[in-house]
Amino acid sequence: MDVHADDRDDGDRYRAPALDKGLDILELLAEQKGGLTRAEITKLLGRNASEIYRMLERLVARQYVVRSAGGDRYSLSLKLYALAHRHPPMERLISEALPLMQRFAAQAEQSIHLAVYDRGNLLLIAQVDGPGTWGIAVRLGSRVGLVDTGSGRTMLAFQTPEQRAQMLAEHTAVKGEVTIDHDALEAACAHIRAAGFSQKDSQQIFGVTDLTFPLLGSSGQAIAALTCPFLKRIDEYVAPTLEETTAMLRDTVQALSMFRESNHDDEPAAHPAS
C-alpha cells in the first residue's frame, strides 16, 4: 500500500479551493509593506483575474483586506490581529496582569484598567477598582476611543507607521469622541514615544489625569495599554501623589513584562494581524 499516495488522496479529498485562494491572498499580502495591485496579486499567484477579483471583494467586505484611498492597491487590515486577541493567550495575559493590577490599586489607592486594540478602537479586558470610597471605573468589555484617550494614543504611539496607518484606517468614532487632526495626533504620539508613557488630562471626565504605559512585545510594539485614571484628593487624607502613582504604574508594567518574558517565549498577539 502506498501511504504517500493515500496522503495525497486525503489532501485532494478535503480541498477547499475558495478557502485556498483566500488564504493565498492573505499570506501574500502579509509579506508586502506597501500592498499590491489586483494585477500584481493575480500575476504572483498565477490565478485567473476574475476569481482573484471576486475573492478580493469578499475579503474587503469582510474587512480582512483594505483598499487604498486610490482604490488600486490592497493590503492586510488588522482584523486578524483583533481575532488573535480573543484567543486563549489573551486570557493568559489577563491572568498574569490581574494580580499586579490588584497590588497597584491597593498601593496607589487608584483604579487601573488594561486595554487592547480591537477593530479600530480599544477593548477593555481587565479592570481593578481602587480601595477607597471614590474612584473611576471603566466597565469591563467597554470600547474606548483610539485617538482621544491616553490608552488609544499610547497604543498608536508604539506601532510602526504602517501599522498606525492601518489602525487609523479601521477607526470609527465612539460616542462623544473628541476629534484631532492628523498632524496633532502624530505630534502627540511622538511625545508619548519620547517620554515612554502618556500623562494627560482626560478628555472624557473633568478632574481626571490619565496615566498610561504600554505593554511592549519583543518587537518593541505595544500589545496592550495599562491605564490609571488618577484622581487627586483635596481633603486632609494623604494619598500617593501623581508622581508616586506614575512610578508605581511604571513598576507594575516592568514587573508584568519581566514575568511574561521569564515564563513565555510567545506573546498574546503581535502586530499586525488584523
TrEMBL record:
<protein>
    <submittedName>
        <fullName>Transcriptional regulator KdgR</fullName>
    </submittedName>
</protein>
<dbReference type="GO" id="GO:0045892">
    <property type="term" value="P:negative regulation of DNA-templated transcription"/>
</dbReference>
<dbReference type="InterPro" id="IPR050707">
    <property type="entry name" value="HTH_MetabolicPath_Reg"/>
</dbReference>
<dbReference type="InterPro" id="IPR036390">
    <property type="entry name" value="WH_DNA-bd_sf"/>
</dbReference>
<dbReference type="Pfam" id="PF01614">
    <property type="entry name" value="IclR_C"/>
</dbReference>
<keyword id="KW-0804">Transcription</keyword>
<keyword id="KW-0238">DNA-binding</keyword>
<dbReference type="Pfam" id="PF09339">
    <property type="entry name" value="HTH_IclR"/>
</dbReference>
<feature type="domain" description="IclR-ED">
    <location>
        <begin position="79"/>
        <end position="262"/>
    </location>
</feature>
<dbReference type="InterPro" id="IPR029016">
    <property type="entry name" value="GAF-like_dom_sf"/>
</dbReference>
<dbReference type="GO" id="GO:0003700">
    <property type="term" value="F:DNA-binding transcription factor activity"/>
</dbReference>
<dbReference type="InterPro" id="IPR014757">
    <property type="entry name" value="Tscrpt_reg_IclR_C"/>
</dbReference>
<dbReference type="InterPro" id="IPR036388">
    <property type="entry name" value="WH-like_DNA-bd_sf"/>
</dbReference>
<dbReference type="GO" id="GO:0003677">
    <property type="term" value="F:DNA binding"/>
</dbReference>
<feature type="domain" description="HTH iclR-type">
    <location>
        <begin position="16"/>
        <end position="78"/>
    </location>
</feature>
<dbReference type="InterPro" id="IPR005471">
    <property type="entry name" value="Tscrpt_reg_IclR_N"/>
</dbReference>
<keyword id="KW-0805">Transcription regulation</keyword>
